[in-house]
Amino acid sequence: MKHYALLIAAMMVISSCSPGQDELTLVVGTYTTGNSHGIYTLKLSLKTGDLVLLDSTAADNPSYLAVTTGQNLVYAVHESGPASALSAFSYSGEIGNLVLPGRKENDCNLKPLWRIENPGSDPCLVAADPAGRYVVTADYSSGSVTFYGMEGNGIERQFTFTGSGPDERRQRSSHVHCVVFSPDYRHLFAADLGADRIYVFDKDSAGIPLLKDTVGLDPGSGPRHLVFNHTGNRAYLINELSGMVSVFEHDKGKLNQIQSIVADTCQARGSAHIALSGDGRFLYVSTRLQGDGLVIFRVNGADGRLTRAGYQPTGSHPRHFLITPDDRWVLVSCKNENHIEVFSRDVQSGLLNDTGKRMILEQPVCIGVL
Protein backbone atom coordinates (compact mmCIF):
# COMPACT_ATOMS: atom_id res chain seq x y z
CA MET A 1 0.00 0.00 0.00
CA LYS A 2 2.97 2.33 0.46
CA HIS A 3 3.44 2.40 -3.31
CA TYR A 4 -0.14 3.51 -3.95
CA ALA A 5 0.10 6.19 -1.27
CA LEU A 6 3.23 7.53 -2.95
CA LEU A 7 1.46 7.74 -6.30
CA ILE A 8 -1.50 9.62 -4.84
CA ALA A 9 0.85 12.01 -3.01
CA ALA A 10 2.72 12.67 -6.24
CA MET A 11 -0.49 13.74 -7.96
CA MET A 12 -1.30 16.13 -5.15
CA VAL A 13 2.10 17.85 -5.02
CA ILE A 14 1.71 19.72 -8.31
CA SER A 15 -1.65 20.83 -9.64
CA SER A 16 -2.86 19.65 -13.01
CA CYS A 17 -2.63 21.72 -16.17
CA SER A 18 -5.19 22.12 -18.91
CA PRO A 19 -4.71 20.00 -22.03
CA GLY A 20 -3.41 21.62 -25.17
CA GLN A 21 -0.45 22.05 -27.48
CA ASP A 22 1.63 23.70 -24.76
CA GLU A 23 2.20 20.39 -22.99
CA LEU A 24 4.88 17.76 -23.09
CA THR A 25 4.51 14.07 -22.25
CA LEU A 26 7.48 12.65 -20.37
CA VAL A 27 8.71 9.20 -19.42
CA VAL A 28 10.78 8.58 -16.28
CA GLY A 29 12.99 5.64 -15.36
CA THR A 30 13.72 4.74 -11.74
CA TYR A 31 15.58 2.32 -9.53
CA THR A 32 13.18 -0.16 -7.95
CA THR A 33 15.25 -1.30 -4.98
CA GLY A 34 12.65 0.41 -2.75
CA ASN A 35 8.98 0.95 -3.57
CA SER A 36 9.13 2.39 -7.08
CA HIS A 37 6.88 0.67 -9.60
CA GLY A 38 9.31 1.12 -12.52
CA ILE A 39 8.53 3.47 -15.43
CA TYR A 40 6.28 6.53 -15.03
CA THR A 41 4.64 8.86 -17.55
CA LEU A 42 4.12 12.53 -16.69
CA LYS A 43 2.57 15.61 -18.26
CA LEU A 44 4.51 18.90 -18.19
CA SER A 45 2.87 22.26 -18.85
CA LEU A 46 5.27 24.33 -20.95
CA LYS A 47 3.41 27.45 -19.80
CA THR A 48 3.66 26.96 -16.04
CA GLY A 49 6.14 24.15 -15.38
CA ASP A 50 3.45 22.15 -13.58
CA LEU A 51 3.82 18.37 -13.60
CA VAL A 52 1.07 15.75 -13.44
CA LEU A 53 1.53 12.03 -12.95
CA LEU A 54 -0.29 10.07 -15.68
CA ASP A 55 0.58 6.43 -15.27
CA SER A 56 3.12 3.80 -14.23
CA THR A 57 4.29 0.50 -15.66
CA ALA A 58 5.99 -2.33 -13.80
CA ALA A 59 9.69 -2.74 -14.60
CA ASP A 60 12.77 -3.74 -12.61
CA ASN A 61 15.47 -1.07 -12.33
CA PRO A 62 14.72 0.73 -15.65
CA SER A 63 17.64 3.10 -15.11
CA TYR A 64 17.86 4.48 -18.66
CA LEU A 65 15.29 4.90 -21.43
CA ALA A 66 15.47 5.62 -25.16
CA VAL A 67 12.44 6.91 -27.08
CA THR A 68 12.14 6.42 -30.85
CA THR A 69 10.90 9.58 -32.53
CA GLY A 70 7.51 9.20 -34.16
CA GLN A 71 7.17 5.49 -33.42
CA ASN A 72 5.88 5.60 -29.82
CA LEU A 73 8.43 3.01 -28.73
CA VAL A 74 10.40 3.11 -25.48
CA TYR A 75 13.46 0.94 -24.85
CA ALA A 76 14.57 0.36 -21.27
CA VAL A 77 17.68 -1.18 -19.75
CA HIS A 78 17.18 -3.16 -16.55
CA GLU A 79 20.33 -2.56 -14.52
CA SER A 80 20.18 -5.63 -12.29
CA GLY A 81 23.57 -7.39 -12.30
CA PRO A 82 23.31 -10.99 -13.58
CA ALA A 83 19.54 -10.50 -14.02
CA SER A 84 20.00 -7.50 -16.32
CA ALA A 85 17.92 -7.19 -19.48
CA LEU A 86 16.70 -4.96 -22.29
CA SER A 87 13.00 -4.48 -22.96
CA ALA A 88 10.71 -2.56 -25.30
CA PHE A 89 7.36 -0.88 -24.64
CA SER A 90 4.76 0.71 -26.89
CA TYR A 91 3.18 4.00 -25.85
CA SER A 92 -0.57 3.87 -26.47
CA GLY A 93 -1.81 7.28 -25.40
CA GLU A 94 -1.30 10.29 -23.21
CA ILE A 95 -3.96 9.65 -20.61
CA GLY A 96 -3.57 6.78 -18.21
CA ASN A 97 -4.75 5.77 -14.79
CA LEU A 98 -2.70 5.01 -11.72
CA VAL A 99 -1.93 1.38 -11.06
CA LEU A 100 -4.31 0.51 -8.24
CA PRO A 101 -5.28 -2.83 -6.68
CA GLY A 102 -7.17 -4.98 -9.16
CA ARG A 103 -6.02 -3.09 -12.24
CA LYS A 104 -4.32 -5.16 -14.95
CA GLU A 105 -0.87 -4.18 -16.20
CA ASN A 106 -1.99 -4.22 -19.84
CA ASP A 107 -4.27 -1.28 -19.05
CA CYS A 108 -1.19 0.98 -18.66
CA ASN A 109 -0.31 3.49 -21.36
CA LEU A 110 3.10 1.79 -21.74
CA LYS A 111 2.60 -1.81 -22.83
CA PRO A 112 5.46 -4.34 -22.76
CA LEU A 113 6.40 -5.76 -26.17
CA TRP A 114 9.42 -7.96 -25.51
CA ARG A 115 12.32 -8.56 -23.14
CA ILE A 116 15.79 -9.96 -23.83
CA GLU A 117 18.05 -11.15 -21.07
CA ASN A 118 21.44 -9.47 -21.35
CA PRO A 119 24.58 -11.62 -21.35
CA GLY A 120 26.39 -8.50 -20.22
CA SER A 121 25.97 -7.09 -16.75
CA ASP A 122 24.37 -3.81 -15.62
CA PRO A 123 23.48 -2.07 -18.88
CA CYS A 124 23.29 1.63 -17.99
CA LEU A 125 22.48 3.33 -21.30
CA VAL A 126 20.57 2.39 -24.44
CA ALA A 127 20.44 4.01 -27.89
CA ALA A 128 18.23 3.11 -30.87
CA ASP A 129 19.52 3.07 -34.43
CA PRO A 130 17.55 5.78 -36.29
CA ALA A 131 17.39 3.51 -39.35
CA GLY A 132 15.50 0.93 -37.30
CA ARG A 133 18.14 -1.79 -37.61
CA TYR A 134 19.18 -2.41 -33.99
CA VAL A 135 19.27 -1.24 -30.38
CA VAL A 136 22.61 -0.92 -28.57
CA THR A 137 23.47 -0.89 -24.86
CA ALA A 138 26.47 0.19 -22.79
CA ASP A 139 27.05 -2.56 -20.21
CA TYR A 140 28.83 -1.16 -17.18
CA SER A 141 29.92 -4.16 -15.10
CA SER A 142 30.85 -6.44 -18.01
CA GLY A 143 32.59 -3.68 -20.00
CA SER A 144 30.67 -4.54 -23.16
CA VAL A 145 28.67 -2.97 -25.99
CA THR A 146 25.73 -5.16 -27.07
CA PHE A 147 23.66 -4.90 -30.26
CA TYR A 148 20.10 -6.30 -30.32
CA GLY A 149 17.58 -6.74 -33.10
CA MET A 150 15.01 -3.98 -32.81
CA GLU A 151 12.14 -6.45 -33.12
CA GLY A 152 13.16 -8.36 -30.00
CA ASN A 153 14.72 -11.18 -32.03
CA GLY A 154 17.81 -11.60 -29.89
CA ILE A 155 21.39 -10.42 -29.59
CA GLU A 156 23.16 -9.79 -32.89
CA ARG A 157 26.67 -8.91 -31.72
CA GLN A 158 28.60 -8.03 -28.59
CA PHE A 159 31.98 -6.34 -28.13
CA THR A 160 33.64 -6.96 -24.76
CA PHE A 161 36.54 -4.74 -23.72
CA THR A 162 39.39 -5.16 -21.28
CA GLY A 163 41.39 -2.47 -19.55
CA SER A 164 41.86 -0.63 -16.29
CA GLY A 165 42.82 2.73 -14.84
CA PRO A 166 44.69 4.11 -11.83
CA ASP A 167 41.63 4.26 -9.54
CA GLU A 168 41.85 0.86 -7.80
CA ARG A 169 38.22 1.03 -6.65
CA ARG A 170 36.46 2.37 -9.75
CA GLN A 171 38.78 1.30 -12.58
CA ARG A 172 39.77 -2.30 -11.95
CA SER A 173 38.24 -3.28 -15.29
CA SER A 174 36.43 -1.81 -18.27
CA HIS A 175 33.12 -0.12 -17.47
CA VAL A 176 31.32 1.09 -20.59
CA HIS A 177 28.92 3.85 -19.52
CA CYS A 178 27.70 5.50 -22.71
CA VAL A 179 26.82 4.78 -26.33
CA VAL A 180 25.89 7.73 -28.55
CA PHE A 181 25.52 8.31 -32.29
CA SER A 182 27.10 11.21 -34.13
CA PRO A 183 24.43 13.58 -35.50
CA ASP A 184 24.88 12.18 -39.04
CA TYR A 185 24.47 8.65 -37.59
CA ARG A 186 27.60 7.45 -39.42
CA HIS A 187 29.48 6.72 -36.20
CA LEU A 188 28.76 5.28 -32.78
CA PHE A 189 30.87 6.28 -29.77
CA ALA A 190 31.21 4.33 -26.51
CA ALA A 191 32.82 5.80 -23.37
CA ASP A 192 34.73 3.38 -21.13
CA LEU A 193 34.87 4.81 -17.60
CA GLY A 194 37.07 1.98 -16.35
CA ALA A 195 39.78 2.13 -19.00
CA ASP A 196 39.81 5.89 -19.82
CA ARG A 197 38.95 5.34 -23.48
CA ILE A 198 36.39 6.18 -26.14
CA TYR A 199 35.66 3.48 -28.71
CA VAL A 200 34.61 4.58 -32.20
CA PHE A 201 32.41 2.36 -34.38
CA ASP A 202 31.87 3.10 -38.07
CA LYS A 203 28.48 2.49 -39.65
CA ASP A 204 29.75 1.38 -43.06
CA SER A 205 26.54 -0.38 -44.10
CA ALA A 206 23.08 -1.30 -42.87
CA GLY A 207 24.65 -3.94 -40.63
CA ILE A 208 26.15 -3.71 -37.15
CA PRO A 209 28.81 -0.97 -36.91
CA LEU A 210 32.44 -2.09 -36.80
CA LEU A 211 35.02 -1.01 -34.24
CA LYS A 212 37.41 1.33 -36.07
CA ASP A 213 39.29 3.41 -33.51
CA THR A 214 40.12 3.89 -29.82
CA VAL A 215 40.72 7.32 -28.30
CA GLY A 216 42.88 7.39 -25.17
CA LEU A 217 42.14 9.89 -22.41
CA ASP A 218 44.07 11.13 -19.38
CA PRO A 219 44.58 8.30 -16.84
CA GLY A 220 41.98 8.43 -14.08
CA SER A 221 39.53 10.60 -16.06
CA GLY A 222 36.63 8.15 -15.93
CA PRO A 223 34.73 9.17 -19.12
CA ARG A 224 30.98 8.87 -18.53
CA HIS A 225 28.71 10.67 -21.05
CA LEU A 226 29.36 12.26 -24.46
CA VAL A 227 27.17 14.76 -26.32
CA PHE A 228 27.49 16.34 -29.79
CA ASN A 229 26.37 19.74 -31.02
CA HIS A 230 23.77 19.82 -33.81
CA THR A 231 26.26 20.12 -36.66
CA GLY A 232 28.43 17.35 -35.24
CA ASN A 233 31.72 19.25 -35.47
CA ARG A 234 32.08 19.47 -31.66
CA ALA A 235 31.73 16.86 -28.92
CA TYR A 236 31.65 17.34 -25.14
CA LEU A 237 32.58 14.64 -22.65
CA ILE A 238 31.97 14.67 -18.90
CA ASN A 239 34.58 12.69 -16.99
CA GLU A 240 33.03 11.31 -13.79
CA LEU A 241 36.23 10.79 -11.78
CA SER A 242 38.28 13.86 -12.74
CA GLY A 243 35.24 16.15 -12.88
CA MET A 244 36.56 17.69 -16.09
CA VAL A 245 34.72 18.45 -19.33
CA SER A 246 36.73 17.52 -22.42
CA VAL A 247 35.96 19.46 -25.60
CA PHE A 248 36.71 17.83 -28.95
CA GLU A 249 36.73 18.84 -32.57
CA HIS A 250 34.99 16.08 -34.50
CA ASP A 251 35.35 15.15 -38.16
CA LYS A 252 34.25 11.85 -39.71
CA GLY A 253 34.65 9.85 -36.50
CA LYS A 254 37.94 11.46 -35.47
CA LEU A 255 38.12 13.27 -32.13
CA ASN A 256 40.73 15.94 -31.45
CA GLN A 257 40.72 17.37 -27.92
CA ILE A 258 40.99 21.17 -27.83
CA GLN A 259 40.06 22.00 -24.22
CA SER A 260 39.68 20.56 -20.73
CA ILE A 261 37.76 22.60 -18.15
CA VAL A 262 36.74 21.75 -14.59
CA ALA A 263 33.08 21.15 -13.74
CA ASP A 264 33.37 19.47 -10.32
CA THR A 265 35.25 22.04 -8.22
CA CYS A 266 34.63 19.92 -5.09
CA GLN A 267 36.58 17.01 -6.60
CA ALA A 268 33.84 14.68 -5.36
CA ARG A 269 34.39 12.25 -8.27
CA GLY A 270 30.69 12.05 -9.02
CA SER A 271 30.01 14.03 -12.20
CA ALA A 272 27.04 12.51 -14.01
CA HIS A 273 25.02 13.88 -16.96
CA ILE A 274 25.85 16.37 -19.71
CA ALA A 275 23.55 18.17 -22.19
CA LEU A 276 23.49 21.15 -24.54
CA SER A 277 20.67 23.66 -24.74
CA GLY A 278 18.62 23.43 -27.91
CA ASP A 279 20.21 26.58 -29.33
CA GLY A 280 23.69 25.19 -28.61
CA ARG A 281 24.77 28.26 -26.66
CA PHE A 282 25.04 26.63 -23.22
CA LEU A 283 26.28 23.33 -21.83
CA TYR A 284 25.05 21.82 -18.55
CA VAL A 285 26.75 19.22 -16.34
CA SER A 286 25.40 17.60 -13.18
CA THR A 287 27.69 16.89 -10.22
CA ARG A 288 26.99 14.63 -7.22
CA LEU A 289 28.37 13.50 -3.85
CA GLN A 290 29.40 17.04 -2.82
CA GLY A 291 28.01 20.40 -3.92
CA ASP A 292 25.24 18.63 -5.83
CA GLY A 293 23.90 20.72 -8.68
CA LEU A 294 24.21 21.77 -12.33
CA VAL A 295 27.30 23.55 -13.65
CA ILE A 296 26.53 25.93 -16.53
CA PHE A 297 28.99 26.74 -19.33
CA ARG A 298 28.72 29.24 -22.16
CA VAL A 299 29.70 27.81 -25.55
CA ASN A 300 31.84 29.94 -27.86
CA GLY A 301 30.02 29.96 -31.18
CA ALA A 302 33.22 30.19 -33.19
CA ASP A 303 35.36 27.39 -31.78
CA GLY A 304 33.08 25.53 -29.33
CA ARG A 305 35.25 26.22 -26.29
CA LEU A 306 33.64 26.67 -22.88
CA THR A 307 33.65 29.34 -20.20
CA ARG A 308 31.93 28.89 -16.86
CA ALA A 309 28.67 30.88 -16.68
CA GLY A 310 27.08 29.77 -13.40
CA TYR A 311 26.03 27.04 -11.02
CA GLN A 312 22.60 25.90 -9.81
CA PRO A 313 22.28 23.87 -6.57
CA THR A 314 19.86 20.96 -6.69
CA GLY A 315 18.67 18.19 -4.42
CA SER A 316 20.88 15.21 -3.62
CA HIS A 317 22.27 13.04 -6.41
CA PRO A 318 21.17 14.71 -9.68
CA ARG A 319 21.95 11.66 -11.82
CA HIS A 320 20.10 12.91 -14.91
CA PHE A 321 18.29 16.02 -16.18
CA LEU A 322 16.23 17.08 -19.17
CA ILE A 323 16.26 20.41 -21.01
CA THR A 324 12.85 20.76 -22.67
CA PRO A 325 12.78 21.24 -26.46
CA ASP A 326 11.65 24.87 -26.06
CA ASP A 327 14.75 25.58 -23.87
CA ARG A 328 12.56 27.12 -21.14
CA TRP A 329 12.61 24.38 -18.50
CA VAL A 330 15.12 22.04 -16.92
CA LEU A 331 13.87 18.99 -15.00
CA VAL A 332 16.35 17.33 -12.64
CA SER A 333 15.97 13.76 -11.37
CA CYS A 334 17.29 13.91 -7.81
CA LYS A 335 17.63 10.23 -6.96
CA ASN A 336 18.30 10.52 -3.23
CA GLU A 337 15.59 13.15 -2.72
CA ASN A 338 12.98 10.88 -4.35
CA HIS A 339 11.66 13.67 -6.52
CA ILE A 340 12.05 15.60 -9.78
CA GLU A 341 12.83 19.31 -9.46
CA VAL A 342 11.54 21.91 -11.93
CA PHE A 343 13.72 24.88 -12.92
CA SER A 344 12.81 27.70 -15.28
CA ARG A 345 15.58 28.72 -17.67
CA ASP A 346 16.66 32.15 -18.90
CA VAL A 347 17.38 31.58 -22.58
CA GLN A 348 19.70 34.62 -22.74
CA SER A 349 21.92 34.02 -19.70
CA GLY A 350 21.48 30.26 -19.49
CA LEU A 351 20.91 30.55 -15.74
CA LEU A 352 18.25 28.61 -13.87
CA ASN A 353 15.61 29.53 -11.30
CA ASP A 354 14.18 26.99 -8.87
CA THR A 355 10.38 27.12 -9.19
CA GLY A 356 9.95 25.11 -6.00
CA LYS A 357 7.78 22.62 -7.91
CA ARG A 358 8.45 18.96 -7.23
CA MET A 359 7.15 15.63 -8.51
CA ILE A 360 7.49 12.92 -5.88
CA LEU A 361 8.84 9.68 -7.38
CA GLU A 362 11.10 7.21 -5.67
CA GLN A 363 14.67 7.11 -7.02
CA PRO A 364 14.12 8.85 -10.39
CA VAL A 365 17.23 8.50 -12.58
CA CYS A 366 16.25 9.24 -16.20
CA ILE A 367 13.79 11.60 -17.95
CA GLY A 368 12.81 11.45 -21.64
CA VAL A 369 10.26 13.02 -24.00
CA LEU A 370 7.54 10.88 -25.59
Outline the fold blueprint.
Elements: H1 2-13, E1 23-30, E2 38-45, E3 51-58, E4 62-68, E5 73-78, E6 85-91, E7 110-117, E8 123-128, E9 134-139, E10 144-149, E11 155-160, E12 176-181, E13 187-192, E14 197-202, E15 210-216, E16 223-228, E17 234-239, E18 244-251, E19 254-262, E20 274-276, E21 282-287, E22 293-299, E23 306-313, E24 318-323, E25 329-334, E26 339-345, E27 352-360, E28 364-369
What does this structure look like?
This protein is mainly β. Helix content is 3%, strand content 51%. The chain is built from 1 helix and 28 strands. The chain has one helix at 2-13, and strands spanning 23-30, 38-45, 51-58, 62-68, 73-78, 85-91, 110-117, 123-128, 134-139, 144-149, 155-160, 176-181, 187-192, 197-202, 210-216, 223-228, 234-239, 244-251, 254-262, 274-276, 282-287, 293-299, 306-313, 318-323, 329-334, 339-345, 352-360, 364-369. The longest helix has 12 residues, at 2-13. The chain is globular. Mean pLDDT is 91; it is low at 1-20 and 95-106.
Helix content: under 10%
CATH class: Mainly Beta
Distance between the termini: 29 Å
What do we call the CATH homologous superfamily? YVTN repeat-like/Quinoprotein amine dehydrogenase
Rg, alpha carbons: 19 Å
Number of helices: 1
Q: What general outline do the C-alpha atoms trace? A: globular
Query: Would you report the number of β strands?
Result: 28
The H/E string reads HEEEEEEEEEEEEEEEEEEEEEEEEEEEE
Strand residue content: over 45%
- CATH topology grouping: Methylamine Dehydrogenase, Chain H
Order of strands across the main sheet? 3-2-1-28
Sheet with most strands: 4 strands, antiparallel
Helical/strand content category: mainly beta
